[in-house]
Amino acid sequence: MLRSGLQSPSSSQWALWEGRFKSCLVDSDAYLLAVYRYIELNPVRAAMVDAPNRYRWSSVHGNLGSLVDPVLTPHDCFMALERDDRARGDAYRDWLQEAISDEELAAIRQHLAQARALGSPRFQQMVEKTLGRPVSLRARGRPARLSPA
Q1: Tell me, what's the pLDDT at 13?
Q2: What average pLDDT does this structure show over 116-132?
Q3: Can you tell me the distance from the alpha carbon of 41 to that of 52, in angstroms, rounded to the nearest whole number?
């Protein structure tokens, strides 16, 4: 629970992620960077701002190098974009400006909604074996009954 600054009009306190937090395991490399972009473009898709750097609470400021954010820990995949901070920020800015394909957007949303592992088939098989439970997407609804033979 957050205590200072986030209180409802009725003075009860709000949980930080109340009702909106979703997560899924993410494979590294292109999948991780795609999720970075998905997250940081959410305020733009929601028409809250016209550019990701205009959303005050975004991690984009730290990722672009325009603000030092002590809470932000960059992933190795992000750090590998470029060697120095300025070039990395420029490369990331270019990455953000590329359009997210409809397929990529749908895949991220489906994996988040089902809390399934987002990544290559090899990654999904490894996670499934490690966790001992299915981690790939499933069709909506109940599985069809098998007819008696």
Answers
A1: 54
A2: 91
A3: 6
